Queue: 3 jobs
Job 1
Amino acid sequence: MTEKQKNAVTGMFDRIAGIYDLGNHSLSLGQDFLWRKKLGRSLAQYHPRSVLDLAAGTGDLAITIRRQNPDAEIVALDLARKMLVRAGEKIQRKSLPDFIFPAAGDIEQMPFPNQCFDAAAIAFGIRNLEQRATGLAEIFRILKPGGVFAILEFSLPEPGIFGSLYRFYLGSLLPRLGRILGGQSAYFYLRDTIREFPSPAQFAEELTQAGFLCQKIAPLSSGAVTLYLALRPE
């Protein structure tokens, strides 16, 4: 992805910052709350004290992780500054400014030293990286040995009744709902990136190629979303 393309995607997310939460909750029928809780509980078994929330958006995942991991301090990293403004407002309302720290930054070129976080997490942002290998290498770099990387990402369900309904929703209903919400181009982008993202098995192989040990691949919501847990080896 060129710098111009990256700026265009960042600008798109800045433009929908005001409707981003409504879109997430509406288009997932409220299941996004459950998906984030599942990730937060999965991290809790590793007792992380320092967590990097990548593509943090408006801060919902960081807040959920903090609830499930009350000893953790969290850096919420995103390139879209208007999203980070929303995150900061939300963090203030939740009385969490001493524990969650919004920061502007690029996953593919992070401003952190080697091996400085116990855990990293990303919800529905890994597919937005054009250079996923570069991003995964950076995430591996900033994790301590034994550190855990938790990922939530959309996936395409197996063929069948639900799979057919989901593909119809993705191709026909999602863009129309995006138009109603006022962010049509963003929801075309969402549709296209979901379709283009590798299958869970293929993405797990990408994690392995980056040096991670893949610990868990868990389909959620009949396979519409997948939770991955991967470790940086000791």
Job 2
Amino acid sequence: MATGALTPPPTPEKIAETLIEFPDNRLLIDLCGEYDRNLADIEQKLSVQIIRRGNQLAIHGDSAARLEAHEVLKALYERLEGGKDVESADIDREIRMGSAEEGTGARDGDQLEMFKGGPVEIKTRKKLVEPRTDAQRAYVLSLFNNELAFGIGPAGTGKTYLAVAVGVSMFIQGHVDRIILSRPAVEAGEKLGYLPGDMKDKVDPYMQPLYDALNDFLPGKQLAKLIEEKKIEIAPLAFMRGRTLANAFVVLDEAQNATTMQMKMFLTRLGEGSRMVITGDRSQIDLPRGVPSGLKDAERLLDKVGGISFNYFTAKDVVRHPLVAAIIEAYDADAQRALAGREKNT
């Protein structure tokens, strides 16, 4: 019986990899992060494997993922070359936005010509704030380009945080003389009267998110002084009646809890040299049953008015803990199912 030649075992295919070389080993160490945590973050988010070889990084994975990881690592290294740090938020931003920042910017003649063709950065006294999603970037640009802008979407998308950051930046640069931050003092389960202290003590818990944002952007002593001098005001929406807000950056937060009349009152406070931002989440209305939300009415009535910008966020723009996005999507899906059920029964 004739026997044929033995077939050699198949040789495993060479693992596809992309190599990147970094000339400055010190910056490469910063890029990798302590215990290579930055590389691990990129690996987990992009489903790749990154191996360090001297001053090179080898990226393993499918071609699309390798290309994306290459662009992210390159952008982060360029950030380090520019003297900036690399943190988890920066990695998240680069993965979300990619090259979207290239070649776009503010309109010609805008006061922030510096954005033209480059990244959007908001400079405050304590930190540099950068948008982390395309929707956030468009929102920030609209705040600089429009006298009245709306930011509408779920919690955790940076609507209020970015608005306050822009307000602080414009105040520092002298574009406005003061910052005015307001919220409707609408109870979400606990009555105002049950809280101890005078009116300021009762109202301050409702304003706390605005204080938190300001503390991120201004040193404590400077913030206290500006509040004392009324250069920064934080007050309930009801306190805005009868005022004309000129040369100010004005933010109305939690606007879904303003009634139609309150919204009209607030919008008509806009004075010369001022900019106004309205933020809200239509899924978190705490108004009594049957009372329409002023935010919804403003969307309907002002959608076609020139000079007013409407900016919308989704769960994809959530920049808090990843579980927040999952929670929002679960609630949205349930609301859609309930709506479909009601339509089916009618």
Job 3
Amino acid sequence: MSLVPQDFLPAIGPWVSTLDDVWPGAAVKPYFAHWEVGHLVAMLMLGGASILLNLRLIGFGLSDQTPSEVRRDVAPWLHAGVFGILFTGLLIGASNPDRLYTSEAFTAKMLGLAAALILTYGVSLPLARADGRAGSVTRLLGLMGLVIWALSLYVFASAKLVNPGLWHVLTAAALIVLFVSRGLTRIVYLAGLIGLILIQFVTTHIVIKPDDFTRLDPANKAFFWVFLVWILGAAAVQTLSAGRGEHGGAFTKAMAYAAILVWITTAAAGRWIAFA
């Protein structure tokens, strides 16, 4: 089933096709690359602020500050980054509307963006303000954000020529878990990752020839799921072994993981729009 905007919003097709001929799309189009740079800078600002905030909720990072103190310091940068990506994204979209209108990656990006805004403003920031304590509204918004993020991942995984972009999200998850793990858990986890990487390389470069896509694609998909199970397992061990801690329990830590990765999902889907 195709999930491009053109299929479920066909009535706006004529309007979309005119966006790059009128202001502001027509004005932005000659300077598309400049606005793209602005979009990436805003994304980096947002990503850095989100990582600092949510790593603290997980229990690592700026450990000399409480989550509420970290929130106070990074919130202005987080707000500026979100405003920047929305503002530049609207202008970039207006200058290149037809590609977005026919892109499943764009659908995944918009779903991811909705989930990211919910998990950031409805969950992460309130959790940090309360130093990790979660109320009923925060838990409900967390569930809502996870459901929308899951839908984004489904669209991303289903899109032809785009789904390899999910390896970016998986890689980010692997690195975050490696960073926050400690002691024997980190050693075992890292050894498992290295072993899986070596096995995948041998399988997809020696056992299966690189041009044998009939066998190569299923093999890589299978490895994706194996990596995912390993990473989620290590994240669960880290979360549960850390206990409730001083600033929140398993829910707070799980939401912090999700709040980082949902932005990475959104960014990865955006980068893969060109391949749709």
